Structure prediction request, 169 residues.
Amino acid sequence: MKEKTLKTSAHVISLLLTIGCIIFAVLSVSLLAGIIIIVGTLLFAPDMLLAAWEPAVKAGQSFSFGQCVFFFICCLGVFTCIFLALYHAKKIFGCIGKGNSPFTVKTGIQIRKIALYILLSAILCSLSVFHLIDFLSFCLCALFALILFCISLIFDYGCKLQQEVDETL
Prediction:
């Protein structure tokens, strides 16, 4: 009974993670298209961009064009990191939903990748012109990434122990 509940729960979580992946993939592609359009406008029709930028400067816009593009690139990086973290989590829960053991070398690697994407997204948020997260939030993200990294090492150790047990049998 517990195994069936675990499979069902893992399947539901996998579906929710798939929805999250789709949302962040659409956001990433849309933002990339927007960056390409904005930069392309500057390259191919600078008069049109200046005509649009001038009212913003008069209204109190204090950031340069380059700073705004850098902000959008940071946001694209954050969205991509979130997408990749959700994708790897989906793979873990998809494996559990199929009835496979989560205690594999692949799971440890996927958890390490999730930790890396969390840390990278925190770095990108702190680099942004608008400082999307403060120092305390950055520290919490870094601590969470460190905890996930440690959990991945525990998974690796458990896999090695399981392999030793299997070899002795």
Q: What stands out?
A: The chain has a mean pLDDT of 88.
